[in-house]
Amino acid sequence: MRWTSTGRILTGWSLGGALLFGALAASTPALADDDSATVACVRNKVWEAYDGGWGLRTITHDTAVVGERLTWKVTLYANRTYRFLSCAQDGAEDVDLVLFDSNGHVVKSSSEGGRAPTLEISGAELGAYYIVAYLRKADAPKAPREIAVAITHK
Question: CB under 8 Å, gap of 24 or more: what pairs does 103-109 form?
Fold first, then answer.
């Protein structure tokens, strides 16, 4: 299941209760027929992760312009390590990944910058979390750029 915020523009790194729960709408992605470059990129990362013992949880994607955030809800299970892999479309120059808990607190954020950040977390408690991809910079700020995210675990 893919979750995106209806407005997709969230202020700061705060996910207030009303915004967090009131502005999310569900839809289902059609990934089997998707052959975009960003989805292919993240799928290649998943294939490479298989060699390291990682399993695939899900792959999803959406578009954003500079300043927009894409938000997906995910349930994480205890005693697992999760790695969030991403790829952004050509022209995207800086993407951040941020993981929030169900109360809207930042659990972890990526720091490497670029268009393919990775985020890894171990020891999360069982529960609902939100992974946010934030497009900070692109060559054409008002042009939508696709961002694909895969969630792997072991």
Answer: 103/17, 104/14, 104/15, 104/16, 104/17, 104/20, 106/13, 109/13
Task: Give the amino acid at 136.
Answer: R
- Cβ burial of 17 (10 Å; 0-12, 13-18, 19+) is exposed
* Residue 72: predicted pLDDT: 96
The token duo for 40 is 């292919």
This prediction has a pTM of: 0.77
Residue 87 · residue 119 · CB < 8 Å: no
Domains in the chain, start-ordered, CATH in brackets? 2-153 (2.60.120.380)
What pLDDT does residue 112 have?
81
